[in-house]
Amino acid sequence: MNQTNEFPSYRGTMRYKCLSCGATYPIDALYYTCPDCGGVFLLEDTSFSSLAEKHDGPGWRKIFDARAATKNTALRGIFRFYELMAPVLEAEDIIYLGEGNTPIVRASRELEAYAGQPLAYKNDGQNPSGSFKDRGMACAFSYLRHLVRKHGWKDVITICASTGDTSAAAALYASHVGDPLKSVVLLPKGKVTPQQLAQPLGSGALVLEVPGVFDDCMKVVEYLADHYRVALLNSKNGWRILGQESYAFEVAQWYDWNMGDKAVFVPIGNAGNVTAVMSGFLKLHRLGIIEDLPKIIGVQSSHADPVFKYYDQPAEARIYAPVKVRPSVAQAAMIGNPVSFPRVRFLVDQYEQLGGVFHVVQVREQEIMEGMLRVNRHGHIACTQGGECFAGLLKAREKGFLDPHDLAILDATAHALKFIGFQDMYFSNSFAREYEITPGRELHNAPQELIAASRKEDLDEQAFTREAAERVVARLGLADKHDHY
After folding, report:
1. Residue 262 and residue 117: Cα distance in Å, rounded?
2. 396 to each of 133, 260, 389, 403, how far by Cα in Å?
3. What is the residue range of 465's domain?
4. Same domain, 358 and 395
5. Do 332 and 469 belong to one domain?
6. Which of 194, 294, 346, 410 ranks highest by number of CB atoms within 10 Å?
7. In sequence order, which residues have a C-beta less than 8 Å from that of residue 101 and are 6 or more positions away?
8. Hey, is 217 helix, strand or coil?
9. Do the strands 295-301 and 358-363 form a parallel or antiparallel pair, or are they unpaired?
10. Do 367 and 338 belong to one domain?
11. β partners of residue 25
C-alpha cells in the first residue's frame, strides 16, 4: 500500500457502549444516551486490538508520518489517523475544510522566565471556524454524511447548544455539506460574544436564543434529541469526541512520539475535549506508538468548577455535584454540569491504572484574563480559555504537580479575536462586578492621540506630515538616522 496517498483498507467494528450499564448498540442509527438507563456512550472499535497485529508501534509511527505529506484530501486533516478514530467511513464520506494540523508554538524566553516553566501553545484557534470544535465536527459530519448516503435520509436537522464555538463549527460544516442537512443552534441570549454570534448567522444557520446560560440551552436540545429526529452535535455525540482525539495524536507526532516529560493542559467546559485528549493518548499507548503517557492537567474557573470540586475530594469520598455557574470570561468553560463528566471519570481511572497522571486545578477570573493578555503580549493568539490554561500552569507549579524540566503544552482552544471584547473591557475597566476582575495598570493598553484633528485643517499636507512626525520623534526619543549607534 502507498502509505502516503492511498486510503486505508482497515475497517473497524464499531459500537456504542454505555458507561453506566454496559449496554451496547450498533452505529447504524443516531444514539446520544443509553435508551436503557440514560447513561453516556463511548464509541469503541471492538477490533482495535487487531491493529497491534498489523503493525508494531514504530510501524504505525512510520505510516502516520508518511501521511503528513499526503495530497489525498480525505487524509489531509484529522483522518491522517484514520485507523485510530472512525475506521468505518469511506473516503467519499470524509469532509475536509482545513481542520487539524494546527501549529505548536514554543513560548518566548521572557514568557517562560515569567512562568518558571518550559511551555508551548497549540493554537487550535487556527482551525477553519477559529476553534478546536472543528476537529469534532469534521468527524461528526463525516459520519452523518455516511448515514445519509447509507439510508437515503431526507431533511436532516442538525442541532446544538452552544456558547459560541460549537455553533460556529456546526453551522460551517452543515453549510458545506448542504442538503439534506440543515443547521439549527441554540445560544444563551446575551452570553455569546458578537464575533461568535456572527459566525453561525454568516453560515446561514437558524439561530435561536434562550434566556439563561449554556446549561439551559443544553437541556432543551437534549429533550429534542430524546423525543424527535434531530442530529445532536454537542459532546454527547460520541463521533465528536473521536474527532477531537486528533489533538492528542498531533501533539504526540509533533514531539516525535515522545511524550515523556510533557504536561498537557486542557480547559474543562463540557468535558468533551479533556475526554478526547485522554482517550487519544490511551490509544497511542496501547499500540506502543508512545511509550509514556503525558501528565494531563484540566483547568476550571472558580465560577464553573464541578470537575475540580470532584477531584479535590479524597478518592474514597468523591461525590459529583453540578454547580451553579457565575459569569466567566472563559465562556466556553462556563458549564456547571458537563455532559461528558462520566467519560472523564471512566477514562481517568484507566489513565491512572496505566501509570498516567491526571490533575484538575482551579483558577480565578482575574488570573484567566491576565493570563490571556500576558501570553498574547509575548507573541501568541490565545483566547480566554488559553489564558485559563496559562493560569492553570502557574497554579500547577504552585501545587507541585510539575517537575522543573516538564514541557507544558497549553491548549489555546479558539482564536483571540473571538474574545476581543473581554480585552476591551479590561482596558476600559468596564467589567460587571460579578466577573470579579479589577484591571491593573501593568497590562493596560490604549491608543494615544498623536495630533488633534483640528491641526489637519490648519496645516497644508507637508506641514501636517512634518508636525505629526516630530511629535512621534518627541514621544519615542528617536535619534537622527545619521547618528552612530
Report:
1. 11
2. 26, 18, 10, 10
3. 450-485
4. yes
5. no
6. 410
7. 76, 77, 250
8. helix
9. parallel
10. yes
11. 16
